[in-house]
Amino acid sequence: MSSTLVMKVWKPMEEISGELDKVEVRDGAEGLIIIVENETREFIIKYQKEAFNNFVLAFRSTSEMKSSYLGNAARKARIDFFGSAEQPWSLYKMESSDFIKWFDQLSGPGSDIFDIEHQLIITSETTYEILSTYEPVITVKNK
Question: Between vectors from CA 84 to CA 81 and to CA 90, what angle results, nearest 5°?
Answer without folding.
Answer: 60
